[in-house]
Specification:
This protein is α/β, with parallel strands linked by helices. The protein is built from twelve helices and eleven strands.
Amino acid sequence: MSLRAFRTLIAIARHGTFARAGEAVGLTQSAVSLHVKGLEEEFGVRLFDRSRRQPVLTEAGQVLLARAEELVALHDRIPAALSAERALTGRFRLGAIQTALAGPLPDALATLRRAHPRLRVHVASGMSAELARHVAAGELDAAIVTEPVRPHPPDLAWAPLYEDRFWTLAPPGQEGRSLAELLRDLPFIQFDARAWAGRMIARELRRLGLEAREGMALDSQDAIVRMVASGLGVAIAPLAEDALAQLPPLLRLPFGEPQLHRRIVLLERRDRPAQRVAEAIGEAVQRIMRETQERVDN
């Protein structure tokens, strides 16, 4: 049984002749005749009264036409049904660090909303370690955080999204000075030690044998950059390429040997990874980051 043959039968009934039906479905008249012959042989009935100048459906032909229209209509509704099945709906609880909120996440969520208008994503901000605890406890479905560093809650799984590199930031007028000199002479505006980024910076400073003057501890990258721009000290911060392009006029030096970097990941519980909504959010974030990188490169 051929769906194309059913479409041909429907076209003949609608257009009145084999020739016009062929034009409608993109077949020659002989091909139309072959489709009709095939249906007649398969079901063992005559579909048309051929004693007349124009084909007229027999009673059996009218029965088969009705069933053919039902089957073709059912087949043509399948893509819409599958599209509805693929649509994302419901409520999803997402955590995100501040740099993701100030970076790719808003554009990614806007893209997701256009594609899935019935999906509601509720966003909570926080530091990576805090968000990881909420994911582990089931209070968040997923979170965009720095790649976990120990200690971190067990039973977590993550997939990489993009990378940030770490930079030393100092006020204008400090050109030509080394990191050791900057840390010796200026107050250190550091990431909160509870933040995973803060732990990474502290560990690398220890490895390099560097000490910093006591300054202030903040958990907001924007606040840290503003403090440095106001001349209040030196800082070390992870920055994405688009954030680098938007910095105020500051001295900027790569931090670490080699330059330290961190991965931003999508964090989930190990017992329920790869949720469809989480996958869609991750793909949208990565697409926004690729587009941003292309603009920076150009």
